[in-house]
């Protein structure tokens, strides 16, 4: 049964562009977790042994009298713009227009989800692997890194994946000096022009500030209703860290566009197969 997003995790850092961030309390394969720095946030990170909450956390701010929910409007036939050019919103997504923050998906299906961030290093080996195995990839892209590389990212998301929002310049959305509206909404407009559809997922850089009022406000205003974090990280060609090992149904895996991305992808595919899991399009589950 395809489920819905179910939990909020704050303070999940990752290093800009070159290295993946690690969840607090994760245990790497073959040893204990190294201490990791906590990103600034509005709530403490969960303890390593605490199970995530099993019920959704309401994160959507109350609409002002002058605000019309764009998804309700779209479903009622009031907005031609939002009915066109969407990246395969699922029935679950269309039926739940509230902004939700999630770091895994509740599902009984034997699947996990591959998400890849940034876009600085466009690995031909990774593209070849994705095409050969027809891997569904959700690409959370930073606009300034990918603006001249439309064909590459269309190719890597061709197997029921999509391009989604990872901001204009990778600014931390909980930093008071960051122009949150510009980082989120300008990316929306540019990606719609570049890729032909408007993203509806956001991954905050460094995992920082997903529940900040301005993040929720501008996400909702600019067409986003899923803020997607993660609970498994693969980095450096195959180092894996988990919130809870081994990989499980519904886990969201974070990777980055790096020159050794192909090795990282193969590692997580092999680990998934060992658990009887295959990658599935995140777009079809949330």
Walk me through the structure.
With 286 residues, the protein is α/β, with parallel strands linked by helices. The protein has one domain (27-58, 81-284): Glycoside hydrolase/deacetylase (TIM Barrel, Alpha-Beta Barrel), CATH 3.20.20. It is 26% helix and 15% strand. The chain is built from 9 helices and 11 strands. The protein has helices spanning 70-75, 80-83, 91-95, 124-133, 143-146, 150-156, 180-195, 213-221, 261-274; strands at residues 27-28, 100-102, 111-118, 137-141, 162-165, 201-202, 226-228, 232-235, 239-242, 252-256, 278-279. The strands form 2 sheets. Strands 1, 3, 4, 5, 8, 9, 10 and 11 form an 8-stranded mixed sheet that branches. Strand 3, helix 4 (124-133) and strand 4 (137-141) form a beta-alpha-beta unit. Helix 4 packs parallel to helix 9 (261-274) and helix 7 packs parallel to helix 8 (213-221). The protein is globular, with a radius of gyration of 17 Å. 48% of the residues are buried.
Shape: globular
Based on helices, strands and strand pairing, what is the structural class? alpha/beta
Strand percentage lies at 5-15%
How large is the radius of gyration? Answer: 17 Å
CATH homologous superfamily, by name? Glycoside hydrolase/deacetylase
CATH architectural group: Alpha-Beta Barrel
pLDDT below 50 for ≥5 consecutive residues: which ranges? Answer: 1-86
Q: What's the main sheet like?
A: 8 strands, mixed
Domains, number: 1
Order of helices and strands: EHHHEEHEHHEHEHEEEEHE
| CATH structural class | Alpha Beta
Distance between the termini: 12 Å
Strand segment tally: 11
Average pLDDT confidence is 77
Task: Give the % helix.
Answer: 25-40%
Stated plainly, the CATH topology is called: TIM Barrel
Number of helices: 9
């Amino acid at each position: 049964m395809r489920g819905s997003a179910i939990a909020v995790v704050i303070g999940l850092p990752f290093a800009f562009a070159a290295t993946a961030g690690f969840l607090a309390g994760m245990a790497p394969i073959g040893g204990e977790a190294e201490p990791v720095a906590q990103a600034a946030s509005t709530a403490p990170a969960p303890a390593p042994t605490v199970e995530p909450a099993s019920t959704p956390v309401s994160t959507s701010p109350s609409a002002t009298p002058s605000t019309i929910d764009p998804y309700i409007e779209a479903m009622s036939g009031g907005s031609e713009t939002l009915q066109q050019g969407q990246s395969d919103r699922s029935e679950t997504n269309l039926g739940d227009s509230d902004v939700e923050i999630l770091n895994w998906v509740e599902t009984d299906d034997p699947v996990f989800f591959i998400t890849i961030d940034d876009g600085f290093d466009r690995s031909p080996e990774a593209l070849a692997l994705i095409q050969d195995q027809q891997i569904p990839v959700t690409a959370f892209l930073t606009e300034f890194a990918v603006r001249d590389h439309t064909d590459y990212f269309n190719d890597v998301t061709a197997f029921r994946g999509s391009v989604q929002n990872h901001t204009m310049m990778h600014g931390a959305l909980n930093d008071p000096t960051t122009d949150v509206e510009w980082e989120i909404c300008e990316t929306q407009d540019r990606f719609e022009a570049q890729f032909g559809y408007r993203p509806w997922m956001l991954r905050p850089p460094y995992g920082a500030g997903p529940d900040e009022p301005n993040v929720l406000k501008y996400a909702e205003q600019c067409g986003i209703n899923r803020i997607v974090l993660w609970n498994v990280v693969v980095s450096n060609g195959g180092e894996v860290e988990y919130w809870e090992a081994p990989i499980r149904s519904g886990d969201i895996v974070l990777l980055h566009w790096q020159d050794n991305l192909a090795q990282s992808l193969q590692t997580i595919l092999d680990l998934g197969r060992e658990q009887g899991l295959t990658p599935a399009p995140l777009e079809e589950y949330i």
